[in-house]
Amino acid sequence: MIGEDRGSSTTDESDNGIGLCGWLLTAISWGLVIVTLPFSLCVCFKVVQEYERAVIFRLGRLLSGGSRGPGIFFIMPCVDNYTKVDLRTTVIDIPPQEVLTKDSVTVSVDAVVYYRVSNATVSVANVENAHHSTRLLAQTTLRNILGTKNLHEILSDRESISGSMQTVLDEATTAWGIKVERVEIKDARLPVQLQRAMAAEAEAAREARAKVIAAEGEQKASQALKEASIIISESSSALQLRYLQTLNSISAEKNSTIIFPLPIDFISHFLKDKGSDNKKKD
């Protein structure tokens, strides 16, 4: 990678310029190793796991070849020291951040960031603490991005916000040897007063929809009744069937009621007489 190439070239220059004192210390270290054999092997040979890398410094300068591992590697006593770097994916839990949105609403938002070390040498040589720096940058980036969004965008478009945050973080942490794999918005907490206002608004909207649905139902029912009345008025048999159905429902619901059914012709006779009387009055 670019960071490793840069570190290797710097190391080559460092190896060529360690000076007479550096060569003398190196020779003394080799002498100690040889004199104390085989006990010195326990100190000189180190092991790193499959998911780890070792970044070695000799007299404060990076060794050529980049990081070592996985497996066994050799260090010289007194002149070498090394740093283990874990390459596994790490999770950062960003604590709730108080953010002022674009439409002047205060929201408390928290998130999680998944990242891993992609270049062990760069993560040690280019930044003091890559994990702590990534955590602080994630908090700042979360506040900056949410500050450009409206409240409804934060509540409904979390996937887009997560993608934007991942892109910004990944670009910034590349120089630290960090690869940001995923960012997720966990929760957005609103003030209590705003929650009540939104709940009242939602309730009003539901009531309005319920009234519209009820009005549409009444309209359809009245239309159906109108069509039914036209059909019944045009057919005497339909009126007779409706009359019998009404009697049946009354007798089923109220058993204590005594019903004396009258012929439908007798009732229609009175209706005709009443209609003729009205015409004479006119």
From TrEMBL:
Q: Where in the cell is it found?
A: Membrane
The superkingdom listed in its UniProt entry is: Eukaryota
Family annotation (SMART domains): PHB (SM00244)
> Keyword set for this entry?
Membrane, Transmembrane, Transmembrane helix
Q: Which SUPFAM superfamilies match?
A: Band 7/SPFH domain
Single GO cellular component term: plasma membrane
Span of domain Band = 43-202
The record lists the membrane-crossing segments as 23-48
Its main subcellular localisation, reduced to a broad class, is membrane
State one Pfam family annotation: Band_7
**Cited InterPro entries:** Band-7_stomatin-like (IPR043202), Band_7 (IPR001107), Band_7/SPFH_dom_sf (IPR036013), Band_7/stomatin-like_CS (IPR018080), Stomatin_HflK_fam (IPR001972)
Q: Which family does it belong to?
A: Belongs to the band 7/mec-2 family.
- The molecule here is called Band 7 domain-containing protein
Phylogenetic lineage: Eukaryota, Metazoa, Ecdysozoa, Arthropoda, Crustacea
